[in-house]
Design brief:
Elements: E1 2-6, E2 9-12, E3 17-24, E4 30-38, E5 45-50, E6 56-58, E7 66-71, E8 76-81, E9 90-98, E10 103-105, E11 109-114
Parallel strand pairs: 2-11
Antiparallel strand pairs: 1-3, 3-8, 4-5, 4-9, 5-6, 7-8, 9-10, 9-11
């Protein structure tokens, strides 16, 4: 199973980025898909995730600014990040969990927000 993430980069504060995460090589349906992030010197934290049925969970720090969506047919999730802040700077990791409770991780994509 491989998770391929794309869309990170450098943006000025107030700008937007869109991350995508595609899953390849799984025979089983994926329950949760989403992103975690890890800033330098900090623990990895949940940003947002979405279930197969569309139930969504956001970290309080991104509510109202980030939007997660999902295309089940393509096994792909998207994270639209608006009104980015310097504190959003981190490596963003795509994450997926199947119905057996097995987690899969992508390699991470760097998001840098300049002030």
């Amino acid at each position: 199973v491989q998770l391929q993430a794309s869309g990170g980069g450098l943006v000025q504060a107030g700008g937007s980025l869109n991350l995508s995460c595609a899953i390849y090589g799984t025979k089983f349906s994926i329950n949760h898909m989403g992103w975690y992030r890890q800033a330098p010197g900090k623990q990895r934290e949940l940003v947002a995730n979405i279930t197969y049925g569309g139930r969504i969970n956001y970290a309080d720090s991104v509510k109202g600014r980030f939007t997660i969506s999902r295309d089940n047919a393509k096994n792909t999730a998207y994270l639209q990040m608006n009104s980015l802040k310097p504190e959003d700077t981190a490596v963003y990791y795509c994450n997926a969990e199947n119905y057996y409770g097995i987690f899969f991780w992508g390699k991470g994509t760097l998001v840098t927000v300049s002030s």
